[in-house]
Amino acid sequence: MNLDLTGRVAVITGASSGIGAATARSLSAHGAAVVLLARRGDRIQALQQELSDAGRSALAIEADVTDAASLQRAVVGARELGRVDLLVNNAGVMLLSPFEEGHVAEWKQMVDVNVTGVLLTTNAFLDDLRDGGGDIVNISSVAGRTSGRNASVYNATKWGLVGWSDALRMELQEQDVRVGLVEPGAVATELTDHITSETAIAGFKSRFDDMKILESEDIADAVLYMASRPRHAAVNEILVRPALQP
User: Do the beta carbons of residue 40 and residue 13 sit within 8 Å?
Assistant: First the structure.
């Protein structure tokens, strides 16, 4: 199977840890030049150095996906590596809680990052992607196709991302821009570290503490496969769950 991405320039949001960092390592190992976007500049600078030391092309740009001005600066900076033809919208937050607890600020944060942030980032890089074709890979969640206790607002953001991705796929297909969706189940990342609801934390632990869950690299493999298909083939959706996840 050909997984070669030589000559391509990939932007990965949320590249400072977890799935984003693993995806950057995977895409760069298969020939892509990678632009690392995240708010935590020290983390992406360290990853840039790691990849550069391995002889790979990488550029760290501190950016916030909820800030359109910061994304426009990132577009200009990314062109140092060439035309962006692969965008991985990975940045996201999962602040689970029972709806009745009323964590309004957390609801807003999830909508801002998981929905508006993806729209703003895609809009910022769209001219590059359409100028010769490319790929958009959106990292959603199994929560975008199923519903669960303590996850109603998170579900809303991920169901929204699923619907938008498919509509965008149809809008851009005549411009040689493929839009794909990767939907992870439970993954060992920092995502759960930010949950503040004790009820939600207890519920998550009861479901997954005794289960071998996914690693970030499992999701990076799905992104690599999707982005490396020949141009006549569009892999629109990949769902990856731990083998024992119901």
Answer: no
Hey, is 184 helix, strand or coil? strand
Among residues 125, 154, 164, 204, the one annotated as catalytic is: 154
For 147, other C-beta atoms within 10 Å of its C-beta total 12
What is the model's pTM?
0.95
Spatial contact of 62 and 164, defined as CB atoms under 8 Å apart: no
Looking at CATH, the fold of the domain delimited by 9-240 is given as Rossmann fold (3.40.50)
| The two structure tokens encoding residue 154 | 């998170």
DSSP 237: E
pLDDT by 10s per residue, the chain, length 246: 899 999 999 999 999 999 999 999 999 999 999 999 999 999 999 999 999 999 999 999 999 999 999 999 999 999 999 999 999 999 999 999 999 999 999 999 999 999 999 999 999 999 999 999 999 999 999 999 999 899 999 999 999 999 999 999 999 999 999 999 999 999 998 878 888 888 988 887 878 888 899 999 999 999 999 999 999 999 999 999 999 998
Instruction: Name 178's bridge partners.
Output: 135
* Residue 154: active-site member: yes
C-beta of residue 65 within 8 angstroms of C-beta of residue 91: yes
